[in-house]
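Notebook, p. 212. Picked up where the previous page left off. The plan for this session was modest: take the two constructs that came back from the sequencing core last week, fold each one, and keep the raw output in the notebook itself so nobody has to go hunting through shared drives later. Recording the first one now, exactly as returned: residue sequence, then the C-alpha cell string.
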Amino acid sequence: MSEYINELEKILTLKHPRLTFSILYSPKRYDDLISDNSDKYDFRNDHFIIILCKVDSCIILDAISLYIPSLTLKIEAPDRSYDSIPIETIDADVKNYLYAKILQQQSWLFQRISENTWHLASGLSHQIITQHVVDGALKTIPFSDAVIFRIYDEEHNILRPVAVSGFKDNYYDYSVSPQESISGKVFESRKPIILNSKDDILASFRRYSAIRASVMENNPIANSLICVPVLDQHYCYGTLTILSLDRSSVFNSLAVSLLETFASQVALAWRNAKQYDEKVESFNQVNSLRQQLEMQNEMLRSNLDFHNEMIRLSIKNNTIESFIKAISNKINIEVSYIDISGEMYGKLNNIHKLWVSLTDIKINEMSGETGYIRDDLYIKPMMQNQQAVGFVVVNKSDASDYIRVMLSRLSDFLIMDIMKKVSSLLIENKRKSSIMNKVLSNGINEDTTSTLSENGFMIQEWIGCAVLSLANPTKGGEDVKMLDVHNKLKSLLVRSNAFIYYDEKKFMIYSSDNSLDKINSTFTKLEKEFVNVGFHQAGFSNIIPTIRIKQSLEQALTTLAVLEKRNKEGALRFNNTGIERLFVNHEKEEIKQFIHDVLSPLVDGSEKSQVLLKTLNAYIGHGCSVNNTAKSLDIHANTLYQRIRKVESLTKMDLSRSEDFLIISVACHMLSLS
C-alpha cells in the first residue's frame, strides 16, 4: 500500500520542489464522512472527498477515497507562510492522481467482471450458475458482504430466493411478489435501486409482512444495498441484490454500473441454462419414450408367449389346481388362487384369510383392477363388471413388474373359468326355481318328493322357509354377486338339509327335518349370520308340517313384508309379526286413512291432543288398569277417568265395548309403526 504514498509524493515533489510534503495514510473513511452531515467538504464526488485546513504554519489536505486508500498530506513552505503555498495547484494535482488511480481501480473491477462472466458462461446448470452469481457479485462489488439472487416464479407470481450469502438458511423462505419490497419494485420497473443507509432500507418496507418479520428476526439489516434487475433484452428473470452489512454510503454509480453489467451476464447465462435444460429434458423424454417402447414391445412379446403357454397348460391340465401348479412351475414362483366360489389353491401363509378381503366390498372398491400389497403378499384382483370375482396371490418379494404383468394376463385367463361357474349357477338356479314352482303348484307328492330328492333336498316331516333380502345390491355384476352370496349360504348351511334358490333380490331357503329343533337351529344360525352374508332383512315362517310347504313360503314372504312396512332391518319370525301381518297387503295410504278415521281428533298436533293420545296409549298398554296407568303417568285416577271420557267423546268410541276397544287399539298400534 506504500506505493500510493511514494507515487503521490514523487509527483508533488517534482512539480513543487521548494515545498515539503509529508504524506500518511488516513484512518478516516469516506462512508463515515458522508453520514456525518456536520463536516464541511472542500470537494466531494462519488469517489473521494477533499478537506483542506490550516494548522500552525502548514496546510493539511485530507484525500478521503472510497475505493483506494485515504491519504493525509502535510504541506509546508520554506518561509512557513501559507500564502507561498499554491494550494489550488496542489489540490488539482491530488485530484488528477486520485482520478488516475480510480480509473485503474475501475479497470481492475471490470476485469473482475470479465473473469466472473467466464465462470458464468462455463456453467450449464442452474445450480452451478447460482453459486457463480454469489461468488462473482461478492468479488465484483467492493464492500459487499451479502448477496440475494431471486428468480421470478411465473406459476406462483413470486420472486423466490435461489442463492443467498450472508444470511441464515431461513432467508430462502422470504419470497416476495412483484411491486412488494425492494426486489419487487426493481423487477416491476426494470430499474436499479440504491440505498445507502439503514433508515432508507427500513423505510422501503411500507407494508407489514409476517414472513419478512420472521426471517429478519434472526438476520441482520443491511446498511447499504444495490438491487438491479437480471435483465436479458426485454425479459426479466429476477433480481440481484448486494448488501453491505457493516458500512453505510459505500455504493455509488460505479457500483450500480458494475452490478448491472454483471447482472446482464447472469441473465444471459440463466437463459442459456434454461435452454440447455429444455434440450436435456426433451432428449430425456425422447430417450424415455424409446425405452418405454422397447419395454412395451418386450412385454408384448412376453405376454404373447405367456398367453400361448397358458393355452397349452390349460389343455394339458384339466383342473384349476393343476393349472395353477403348472403356472407356478413355469414362472418359478409360488402362485396362490382364491375365487368367489370359495375355491382356494396355494401354499402361501394365511391364504384362507383372503376370503374376508375377497368379500369385503370396500376392499373391492379400493383395489379396482390393479394389484395391491397387503402384509407380505401381492394381491391381484380378478374383476368382472367392477366386482372382484377372485384373487391371484404371490409373495410381495416376487412381485416384479414383469410378474405383475404376467399375473394380469393370468387373471384375464382365469376369469373365463369363474364366469363358467356363474353361468352354471344361473342354470342351476333357474332349474331349482322351476322345480320349487312345480312343488308349490302341485303340492308334496311322490313325484315332487322324488324330484327334490334328486336335487339334494330330502322331504321329511317338518318344514320351514326363510326369505332373505339383499343389502345394497350392486348395479353391475349381479350374477357375480348372487354367486358370492349363494356360496356363502351353502358354506353356512353345509350340514343342514336345505334347498336354496333366488329370485330377483331375494333368496329362498327351505329346511326340512324330522326334528323341529334341527330346523330351528338352522333358522337361528341364519339369524346370527345373515348380515355377514350380505342381507339386511330376513323373514322366517313357522315350522309346520311339510305338506303345507306353500304356506311356509307365504308366511316367510309375509314376515319380510312386515319388516319392509316397518322400514327396519333385521330378522323376524312369523309368530312375532302380530296384527301387522293382516295389513301387509294394504297400501300405506289406506292404512293412513284408517288411522285418520279413528284417531283424527287426537293427532291434530295440539298440546292437548298429544296428552290425550299419550294417555290412551298408556291405558291400552297397561291392559286398561286405572291404577297402573295413573301411576305410570304420575296423575290422579280421577284425572285419568276425565281424560278417557274426553278420548271417548272425541273419537265417538266406547272403550268398554270390545269392538270399539279393538279398533282403537289397532289404530294406535299402526300409528306407532307409521
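Okay, moving on. Second construct, recorded in the same format:
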Amino acid sequence: MVAPPRLERITVAEAADRYLASVAAQTLRGVLSPTTRRSYERDVAEFARLAGPTRVLDDVAGEDVDDVLLRYQTTPDGRYADASRKPGSSGRSAMTVNRFRQSVTRFFSHAAREGWVQADPMQWASPPARVRDGLRVARTALSAGSAASLLEVSAARAPGDPAAAARRDQDLQLRDRLVVALLLVLGPRVSELERANLDDFSREPDQTRWRIQGKGGHVRTVTLSPPLAAALEEYLERLRPALLARRPDDPDARRALLLSWRGRRIDAQAVRGLLRRCVARMPAQYRREATPHALRHTTATLLAAEGWDVKVVAELLGHASIATTGVYLDRIEGELAAAIRAHPLSAALEPAET
C-alpha cells in the first residue's frame, strides 16, 4: 500500500507553476492538445491571481474557491479589447465560467495527489448554477423531442418575424440545417466543424464519408446517413456557390465547407449565434439552451439510449478512452425504472401459475 504524500506547504503561485509544467509535459507526450494546454495555462494563472499568488495553497478553502469563481464570473473577459462589444458584457459567459471551474478542479486534483493540499477544497465549493438566461440546463443533452424541434426550426424561416426578415443572412437555412444536423447526428466538436474542408468529404453515389481532423491531430472517418448526405448535397449545390461568389479569390474560402454570408469560413461564434436563433424559434415546451457542446452530449446520450455500444459512441466522438465518453452520457428521464423493469431476473419473481 502506497503511503499518502507528505504535505508540502507551497504557495499558490509555486503550485500553479509546477502544475503547468506537468501540463506542458503531457502536451509534449500527446496526452493533451495545445489548445487544452493554453486553456489550462490561462485559467490556472487567473486563479492564482484571484486567490492570491503568495498565499499557501493548503489554506485555500471551499468558500475561497466560491469567492474566486464569483469574481471571475463578474469580471469582463480580458481577451476582448472592448468588453462592451462582447455579448453579455456584464460578465463572462456560463460556458467560460464552467471551463474555468473545470480547469481549477483539475488543478486541485493534481495538488491533492502531489501532497500540496490535505484535502481538495473543490468538494466543499458550491455546485455550479443549473439555470442560465432563463433556459433549463439541468441536463446538458437535449431530449429527443427538443433535438427534433431544433432540427425542424433550423430548416425554416421565422414567419412574420420582422427581425428575421431584416437579417441579411435570412436565406442561409440550407447551411444552418446542415450545421445543426451534423452537430446532432455526428457530434463533432465545433472546432472540427469550422475546420472542415470540401476535400475532407468523400462523396460517392452510395456513400458519403467525412474525414474529421480531430483533437490532438487524431483523424477519424465517419459515414453520413443518407438524409444527412442529402442535406450536404443540397447545401453544396444550391447555396455554397452563391456564398463563395462573394470571395472568389480567397483560397481558404474555396477550401472551406461552411461559409458565412460574406463568403468567409464560418467560425465557432457564428455557429453559436445560429443555434441561439434556432432556439428562439422553438416551441416553449422544447426550448432550452443549445450550445455546440450540448449537441455533442445529445449525440452521445441519444445513441446510448438506442442501444449503441459505448465503444462505438466513443469512436464517433473521437474519444481515446470510453471513460471520457461516459462523461457525455446524461441520464435519460425514466431510464433507471425501465432498466429495473427489464432486469434479467425480474421474470424469476413473477408468481407461479396455479
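Notes on construct two before I forget. Residues 81-89, 130-138, 160-170 have pLDDT under 50 and may be disordered.
Flagging for discussion at group meeting.
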